[in-house]
Amino acid sequence: MEQAKKIIADHGSELPSLTRTMSRSNVAKGFWMYFPRSFCKLHLPENDATIILEDEAAEEYETNFLVNRSGLSAGWRKFSLDHQLKVGDILVFLLVGPCKFKVFIVRVENTIEDDVAGCLLDLRDSRRKNPSLGRRSSREQ
What we know:
Order of helices and strands: HEHEHEEEHEEH
Helix content: 25-40%
Number of strands: 7
Mean pLDDT: 82
C-alpha cells in the first residue's frame, strides 16, 4: 500500500484517485471492477459511459461504466488478462480526464501459489539431500 501512496503523490495527488486490491471477482471469475458509489457520484458520468483505462505504457483500453452497478464491465476483462493481474495486486486509478483513468499496477509480492510452490521445491530439495525423509517407517505402513 505504501507503493500505491507514493504513486499518487508522484503523479498528482490533486487528481481524484482510487486504490483497489484485486480480488478473485476482479481477475478470475466474473471480471468485474466495482468503484465506491461516493466516488462515482462525485467524479464519473451520471449515465452509462465508456471509460478509458490507460496503462503505464500509455496503451488505452475501452471499458463500459455502468452507473447502476458503480463499476466497469465490458473491456475490464481484457485489461485484467492483458496485464496478468493476480489476486492481491493493487491498482491505482488516477482520474486524468472526465472519462479517463491512468492505471498503475503494484504487483503482489507473495501469492499463496508462490508460497506453496516454494514449499514443494524446498521439500524436494530436502529429500534429495536426505532420502530417508520421504520414506514411511514400517510402523506407518
